[in-house]
Amino acid sequence: xxxxxxxxxxxxxxxxxxxxxxxxxxxxxxxxxxxxxxxxxxxxxxxxxxxxxxxxxxxxxxxxxxxxxxxxxxxxxxxxxxxxxxxxxxxxxxxxxxxxxxxxxxxxxxxxxxxxxxxxxxxxxxxxxxxxxxxxxxxxxxxxxxxxxxxxxxxxxxxxxxxxxxxxxxxxxxxxxxxxxxxxxxxxxxxxxxxxxxxxxxxxxxxxxxxxxxxxxxxxxxxxxxxxxxxxxxxxxxxxxxxxxxxxxxxxxxxxxxxxxxxxxxxxxxxxxxxxxxxxxxxxxxxxxxxxxxxxxxxxxxxxxxxxxxxxxxxxxxxxxxxxxxxxxxxxxxxxxxxxxxxxxx
Amino acid sequence: xxxxxxxxxxxxxxxxxxxxxxxxxxxxxxxxxxxxxxxxxxxxxxxxxxxxxxxxxxxxxxxxxxxxxxxxxxxxxxxxxxxxxxxxxxxxxxxxxxxxxxxxxxxxxxxxxxxxxxxxxxxxxxxxxxxxxxxxxxxxxxxxxxxxxxxxxxxxxxxxxxxxxxxxxxxxxxxxxxxxxxxxxxxxxxxxxxxxxxxxxxxxxxxxxxxxxxxxxxxxxxxxxxxxxxxxxxxxxxxxxxxxxxxxxxxxxxxxxxxxxxxxxxxxxxxxxxxxxxxxxxxxxxxxxxxxxxxxxxxxxxxxxxxxxxxxxxxxxxxxxxxxxxxxxxxxxxxxxxxxxxxxxxxxxxxxxxxxxxxxxxxxxxxxxxxxxxxxxxxxxxxxxxxxxxxxxxxxxxxxxxxxxxxxxxxxxxxxxx
Lengths: 346, 418
Hints:
The complex is a heterodimer. Chain A is α+β, with helices and mostly antiparallel strands. Chain A has helices spanning 2-19, 31-39, 58-71, 77-91, 185-219, 231-260, 263-296, 303-313, 320-332, 339-344, and strands at residues 100-102, 110-111, 117-125, 132-139, 142-148, 154-156, 166-174, 178-181, 221-222, 225-226.
């Protein structure tokens, strides 16, 4: 993992310099951050060059998403880079310019023979500000990737507990701005992509929570010493660091598996990563708040930006229970490789 | 231990129930069922009703305008009010009546009792608590707000924080350092300070759920008269701790009642979502039920101690750890039950909460998400879980104490910065 971390450093630094300021104080989204990301080609890193992308790797695309998760930036980069751009690539469609988002799950959306779209798509991140939304519709002869201009649909605004837009899109005979049929397997892969995007975001947010905690416990003095000197505090910090490491490693493993092209390997790794990261997210947020204490639950402190996101992201793209069921079903499936082999031998 | 209440307490319980039945609006389920703007209005008129029926300052002796109830009667009354979802006063009454009033009755001068108690009772004065500071949280005795005598007035400088209901108060009781050359617990004085003066500024703190329940209070050459001291100059730590004993007070048995009410709401939520057959949800609901039963037994143990002449002691730390950690667990379960509904929550908001939403709150996804977020603070405020476990370890189990690095004169301590 060290070698790849080395290779990523210039990209990490570019993303950090673009997103360094973190979220703006007010407003629903960070338009300037999006513009800078798009201009630098960071929203389409692993889209083939023939479709106007950067021709890079999934791991590189994910690195920008991880940094965005760490900086709590209000842009749909995870949806654009890991879900939307990938769907467009799978359909051979070019990536449109302007704020791009995608639904992690558009079950129930149908396309009729003329291509018109009907259905309700729930909790689409940043739909209200996007110029294009990438969706997967059920067409007369299989799944169809479609691009929709949200102004042609009814947008019902909602917000997650981190204050990020999660808007319902109601489509009633809407014509897409682009459409192309894809293989049936794309539907299953979409679920994995959505889950993977949340694991990568959580890895970033978890690291930021750990960084904030380390700073706080070293600087905060009570009873005549920094609280980091107390064993009870040290023990919690160590547990926190362990949880952050498990999210980070499960994200790396899921990215490797997804990039391998082995669908079964990817399905197991992403489901496992999703369960690990959901569990860890709750623990990370709980420990971080306990250690940063009173000031950490206020609006003025940065911690809530990471913890509310960890809470919000932990159940997006399928709840922890959903992915645990999936994982369990694979483990007991008589036609799948034996469990031990699934765990260690892939 | 006998866990039945004496017959006269049960007779009193019937009287309280009759009072609540006659005086609460028909169909009352709690403040949570009212629109936010109606809640304050109800609290005020309800407070007047309570005062008329001697049900307001229930712990005070009759000679000071209280109800002069025995401890067991106070407990029974608190239980019945909790069960009915009826507030026991206005937001500041916990500080004015419950904490300061009782402290004055035990440690105040006759002049202080005569001056302050009737004003607290009438609602003319609304009190808040000036204890914590930015650098003195768990380590409360590390306070730096200073008070210096100037003629017949104290001049106060410094900052308090986490002041609940401070924005509604016009008076504050303040722990101030009056002798920095003394050891840190020794040079502290408990002062009564009016807030409507230029040297006192209140600034709200907004929490991550978006509510301003706490405040910062800044003192810049604020003044109070030299006699506004409770318990003696430089002897304020003793007063401060006595007051915290009243904070724990007789509430031990009501936690279980209130959490039972909110757990019932959670079971109803699981039922509405068709999840009561899910073994994972069932197991966790059963765990929650057991914890609330543990709380109930803890409450009865505390009550039994009180009735046998004991004061709330280090055992209160066990109850604090149990309820605050339970609050996090059952709200995490609520989020799991809601599943995708918790992701962009809708429905009635709580209007802000500390321990749990007001009784009668709608079973909405948003109310649960806000309760979940607020539960994070429960293991932090009023003594963090780490501090409570220290107390349990050192005072109940007799484990060795952590070596102190903060002995000697306060002004010489590292980090005391004056």
